[in-house]
Amino acid sequence: xTRIGLVxxxxxxxxxxxxxxxxxxxxxRGVSADAVVWDDEAVRWEEYxxxxxxxxxxxxQRRDEFLAWAERVCGVARLVNPLAVIRWNTDKHYLRELEAxxxxxVPTQWLEPERHLSSRALHTRFPAHGxxxxxxxxxxxxxxxxxxxxxxxxxxxxxxxxxxxLLGEDRTVMAQRYLTSVDTVGERAHVFVxxxxxxxxxxxxxxxxxxVAVDGLYKEERISAVEASPEEVEMAHEVIATARQLLDAxxxxxxxxxxxxxxxxxVDVVSDDDGRPVLMELELVEPSLFPSYADGALDRxxxxxxxxxxxxxx
Length: 314
What we know:
The strands form 3 sheets. This protein has a 5-stranded antiparallel sheet with strand order 11-10-9-12-13. A 4-stranded parallel sheet has the order 2-1-3-4, sandwiched between helices. The protein is built from 9 helices and 13 strands. By secondary structure, the protein is an alpha+beta fold. It has helices at residues 21-27, 63-74, 83-89, 93-100, 119-125, 153-168, 181-184, 230-248, 297-313, and strands at residues 2-8, 31-37, 50-55, 78-80, 108-111, 131-136, 146-149, 173-177, 187-193, 196-203, 223-225, 264-271, 277-283. β12 (264-271) and β13 (277-283) form a beta hairpin. α1 (21-27) crosses α9. It is globular and about 60 Å long. Helices cover 31% and strands 24% of the residues. The protein folds into 3 domains: 2-88 and 305-313, Rossmann fold, CATH 3.40.50.20; 89-104 and 183-206 and 214-291, D-amino Acid Aminotransferase, Chain A, domain 1, CATH 3.30.470.20; 108-177, Dna Ligase, domain 1.
């Protein structure tokens, strides 16, 4: 029987609730699947035909360890999405590359620790009006992410202190405009499975401007099903295609077998001031795929995983 490891973290040893139905769905397809914790030294990764990263949501605090783990797994099993994708997509500098390739993203200032920026220098790089978001380039689940008011001196001072703390930890800081559509319309997450559009969900605003602390792996999200506009689905296709082109051009580009469509992808978009969709995040490593929010989504995901496992085993 084909064996699959569904990768999670020690805080969620039995997978996230959205992913646990995959175990039975894969069993119904004649595939044996286990929930496995990525940093559990007792796991024998070579026993799996396919290793699928799912709820490994503590990677952001230990990215170097996570990448080393992924490299080890690649030596003994088929890992999806593959190592080159994991290395590229776990650092949000990928957004800068996508923007340079023509993708519209949320307006962002990149603040690098090696610049040793003073408080004054940070002040001049922050938006002058409206609200802004400060977050690290390596993060997950909105950890270490804060929302601030640009024209309020106290709030701006807190934003500067937040950025200085992250820079002092040798972490790149992203200073972004907070687009008001996040509050009025929401963030849309478009899910793709094996290169095909599957479904979309609407995510409510998460940042309240009061606290960047999170007690757990992530901030709780308010999710609902939503019907995607053709414009946004087309944009999401273009984002994924551009990501593939950028990855294929890298020195450590995936091997021939890994030029298959991404097993899964989630394209998160918001609306700019003109109502156009802009990219918030492209999630290719461990995104929630929300299969319970759309009819047939679980089957589509299970079919894709089973087919990829059969290919790996063959």
